[in-house]
Specification:
Elements (H helix, E strand, L loop, with lengths): L2 H7 L4 E4 L6 E8 L19 E7 L1 H51 L16 H56 L6 H37 L12 E4 H15 L5 E4 L11 E4 L1 H17 L7 E8 L2 E8 L6 H6 L13 H4 L4 H11 L3 E7 L3 E9 L4
Parallel strand pairs: 5-7
Antiparallel strand pairs: 1-2, 2-3, 4-6, 7-8, 8-10, 9-10
Length: 392
């Protein structure tokens, strides 16, 4: 290094490579200041008597740095591996609830609508709210599919029963006309009797069709507005069920004059009482007529019959009770089904087609009321109509 190079470094340390090998050196260089002469005079000339250079090897420093770097690299890679494994387990743990949701959804897609999402988290978390929402949706879907299946089953039973009931009078008419065509009815009396039977069959067929149409309209209204079952063609007005009970008493006496009939309060307690209700009187007369006709038809002649009317709590109550053979619990469960007849030994001429009580239930339901049956075998049956009590 010449003086200019030394001056350029300005006394600051710097690093240089060795001439042999890869060792580095740390160097510091400074100009040498001449000392004063013996007689107190300074040296003359350039004023610079050379430079002083001090250097030390960086082999130990570089070795220490290399060891530290190796240690840091090993530690970093190990820490990175640990973090990767921990992250994998954390992600797996976080995705495990979604895996259960996926598995449950696959089972539901396979047709198992009774499955529900498990409680994967608290109700205030996103996953908890998602599970609750999905379970609510699944409940509605299950109810909808169950209702549709029940509707389809009822429709199938209705079509089968209706076909059977409609075929019976048609088969009777065809059989009688075939007899007449074959000449089996030679005398006038036989022809007249046959024509009378042929004339009665269409009347029974017309009544059956009218009952079926009425049931269809009633149940169609219930399906259309489940929250408001009041039929739009009901002529609602304040009415007292005592009038209907008294008229039912006269109807029973006209149908069976020998039958004992009494008019009491609800459950046979005391005299009849007022039973105000907002109702269509004509439709309720049909209800009472069907109940009375059912009691007269399905009990032996002379069996006592009671009509009860009054109020119980918030309901106006009308009862038709008999002391006939009664019904079994199974029969009570099905008594309001279409075309169901508890006494299968009766003919359709005396026992009906099994639509009367179905019409009763539909009409009472249209009035936002309910009809109940209470029966004990060999002790009798009580039909109870409950309508919302009208408060003045």
């Amino acid at each position: 290094m010449d003086a200019a190079a030394v001056e350029a470094h300005g006394g600051r340390p710097f690093t240089v490579d060795s001439t042999e090998g890869d060792t580095r050196w740390r160097v510091i260089a400074a100009p040498r200041v001449p000392r004063a002469g013996l007689l107190g005079a300074t040296a003359t000339g350039s004023g610079n008597s050379g430079s002083v250079v001090v250097a030390t090897s960086l082999e130990q420093v570089d070795g220490t740095v290399d060891r530290m770097w190796q240690s840091y690299r090993t530690t970093g890679l190990g820490l990175l591996a640990v973090l990767a494994v921990a992250g994998w387990f954390a992600v797996r743990s976080g995705l495990r609830p979604l895996t259960r949701v996926e598995r449950t959804a696959a089972e539901i897609a396979g047709g198992d609508l009774s499955r529900r999402m498990p409680d994967l988290a608290g109700p205030r978390t996103e996953l908890g709210r998602l599970s609750a929402a999905l379970n609510g949706m699944l409940g509605q879907l299950e109810s909808a599919f169950a209702a549709r299946a029940e509707s389809e089953a009822r429709m199938s039973r209705f079509v089968a029963d209706a076909s059977h009931e409609l075929r019976t009078p048609l088969a009777g008419i065809k059989g009688l006309t075939d007899l007449h065509r074959m000449g089996a009815l030679s005398d006038g009396e036989g022809v007249n009797a046959t024509m009378d039977r042929i004339a009665r069959e269409p009347e029974r067929l017309a009544r059956l069709v009218e009952d079926m149409l009425q049931l269809t309209r009633l149940e169609g209204q219930e399906l259309r507005t489940p929250g408001d079952r009041t039929m739009p063609d009901l002529d609602l007005a304040p009415a007292d069920l005592r009038t209907l009970a008294a008229d039912a008493l006269h109807d029973v006496r006209a149908l069976d004059p020998e039958r004992p009939v009494t008019l009491t309060g609800p459950a046979g307690d005391g005299p009849p009482g007022p039973a105000p209700a907002l109702a269509d009187e004509a439709r309720l007369r049909q209800v009472v007529t069907n109940l009375v006709g059912n009691a007269v038809t399905h009990t032996p002649p002379g069996t006592p019959l009671r009509t009860g009317v009054g109020t119980v709590g918030d309901h106006a109550v009308l009862e038709v009770a008999d002391r006939g053979p009664g019904l079994t619990p199974h029969q009570c469960d099905r008594i309001f089904d279409r075309f169901y007849r508890a006494d299968t030994s009766r003919t359709r001429t005396t026992g009906g087609a099994g639509l009367g009580l179905a019409i009763v239930q539909s009409l009472v339901t249209a009035h936002e009321g309910q009809v109940e049956v209470d029966s004990t075998p060999s002790k009798g049956t009580t039909f109870r109509v409950l309508l919302p009590r009208l408060t003045m």
